[in-house]
Amino acid sequence: MNFFTFLDKLKRNYNSIILYCLLDRIPIIVLGEDSDKIDNFLIELSELVDFRKDYVFYTDFISINDYENLISNENIDYNSQRAHIRCPCSVSIKALNQFDNIDSWLIGLIIPEKKDEVVFIKNLIKEKAKDLLFITISSDTISIKLEGINLKLIDLALEQNTFKKISQDTEKSIAKMKRVLSDKITTNQLDKDLLKTLLDFEEEKNELKKNIFKREVQNFYSGSKRAFFILSRLNLLNDIGIQTRIGSKTLLETIDYEEAPIERILSFIDKEWGENFSPLIEDGKKAFMGDKIVSLWG
After folding, report:
1. In angstroms, rounded to a whole number, what is the distance separating the alpha carbons of residues 275 and 252?
2. How far apart are CA 41 and CA 221, in angstroms?
3. Which residue blocks in the chain are alpha helix, DSSP H?
4. Which domains are present in the chain?
5. Which of 65, 67, 146, 281 sees the fewest Cβ atoms within 10 Å?
6. 75-83: long-range contacts at Cβ-Cβ below 8 A with a sequence spacing of 24 or more?
């Protein structure tokens, strides 16, 4: 199933929730009756955050030690590619019984026929993470359920704007392609069926959406990483006794990325690199460095 075809079947804002969970490494559990459909959908999800390294349980690693070796560089090298884990349906129960931490995991599950088994598995999953996203795919319906997160307390502006931009930019690109072709022909040169075929860009539309999506997500990731490097150096100054902070406006201008609020960038940095830099952001126009007042807003 193509991810963007899938999104068209969802209620409003559900696509933004999925993107939010992918970016913030919240475990995503995909349930259904067709293992091939679920496993293919997991691949689609993993490709949406291709700034991370995709590892497959029981292909790239089979034990906790193997897993720890794969991610060992993350704690010592901030430039190393962060991992996310894809777990196919055939080994999902094995993984849930073996691993306690499933942050940034994409897990496929076949829905058991017995209700008590469903309850057991969901309780088992909830023991592993307090925040979870369940996506259920059936032949007729698609639904999502968010556990542990109050939607009223999170800002989905970045995610909503991303999908809005995808829609707008895709339509602009399709319109340009149609206009170029239309300028080369006149309606009386071709029969209606051939003309319709020539101007049908539905397959290309999905590819365009995916490319624009990846571009927007990569821009957010790159901007966040630039913010991370600046804030980590400010943090180092604080560690050696030079107390300093930075205004959010200055930081956003410095990283040349203003598509997301500073709070969203800080949240992503915390989830991606495990650093809470929010104390370094000041609300006022000045910060103190030692006994000197230093302007950080520019």
Report:
1. 18
2. 23
3. 3-8, 14-23, 35-47, 64-70, 92-98, 115-126, 157-184, 192-198, 202-239, 248-255, 262-273
4. 3-153 (3.40.50), 157-295 (no CATH)
5. 65
6. 75/274, 78/228, 78/232, 78/273, 81/51, 81/52, 81/53, 82/51, 82/52, 82/53, 82/272, 82/273, 83/52, 83/53, 83/54, 83/55
Q: Which residue do the tokens 């990283």 mark?
A: 255
pLDDT tens for the chain, 298 residues long, are: 567 777 777 776 889 999 999 999 999 999 999 999 999 999 999 999 999 999 999 999 999 999 999 999 888 898 899 999 999 999 999 999 999 999 999 999 999 988 888 889 989 999 999 999 999 998 767 889 999 999 888 999 999 999 999 999 999 999 998 888 877 776 566 777 777 778 888 888 888 999 999 999 999 999 999 999 999 999 999 999 999 999 999 999 999 999 999 999 999 999 999 999 999 998 643 333 333 333 333 3
| Residue tagged 């925040």 (tokens) | 131
How far apart CA 167 and CA 95 sit, in angstroms, is 37
- Answer yes or no: are the C-beta atoms of 136 and 31 closer than 8 Å: yes
Buried b (16+ CB within 10 A) or exposed e, 130-139: eebbbbbbee
Check residue 148 and give left, alpha or beta (phi > 0: left; psi -120 to 50: alpha): left
How many whole angstroms separate alpha carbon 123 and alpha carbon 107? 15
Residue 266 has which token pair? 């800080």
Packing angle between helix 202-239 and helix 262-273, nearest 10 degrees?
A: 80
